[in-house]
Amino acid sequence: MSHTVILEFKCNEGVGPGFLEMLLGALADTRAFEGCENVETYTDADDPDRIVLWEKWATRADQEAYLAWRTETGTSISSMTAPMMAEPPRFVHLEPQD
């Protein structure tokens, strides 16, 4: 069964559109990574500085391997986004209940 992750970015005021543009450029590598089944990108309709990713991975281990790869290559979320963030990114790992 797939593993679902919600990733929420709260950007500094006015930074959301530029952050989204940068993020969209990085998602080709995410989508090509082993185990990535889907990534959808959303902007909060009431707050353009809040960006949300909805990710589907074959397993949680695949998603964790992806994060480790980002860290090893110097393209981790922290290194790429820290100056743009009003707060740290929030990961929510979901487990199906039905």
Kindly list the characteristics that best describe this protein:
single chain; 98 residues; alpha+beta; Alpha-Beta Plaits; 3 helices; 4 strands; 34% strand; globular
Task: Give a written overview of the molecule.
The structure is a single chain. This protein has 98 residues and is an alpha+beta fold. It has one domain: Alpha-Beta Plaits (2-Layer Sandwich), CATH 3.30.70.100. It has helices at 16-32, 60-72, 77-81, and strands spanning 3-10, 36-44, 47-57, 90-94. A hairpin with a 2-residue loop joins strand 2 and strand 3 (47-57). The model has no long low-confidence stretch (mean pLDDT 93).
What's the topology here?
Layout lengths: L2 E8 L5 H17 L3 E9 L2 E11 L2 H13 L4 H5 L8 E5 L4
Antiparallel strand pairs: 1-3, 1-4, 2-3
Strand neighbour order, sheet with most strands: 2-3-1-4
Number of strands: 4
Contiguous uncertain segments of 5+ residues:
none
What is the highest CATH level, the class? Alpha Beta
Number of domains: 1
Radius of gyration: 13 Å
- Helical amount: 25-40%
Give me the secondary-structure category: alpha+beta
SSE pattern: EHEEHHE
Tell me the CATH topology.
Alpha-Beta Plaits
Question: Largest sheet, described in full?
Answer: 4 strands, antiparallel
- Whole-number average pLDDT? 93
Query: End-to-end span in angstroms?
Result: 12 Å
The CATH architecture designation is 2-Layer Sandwich
Percentage of β-strand residues: 25-35%
Q: Output the number of helix runs.
A: 3
Indicate the overall shape: globular
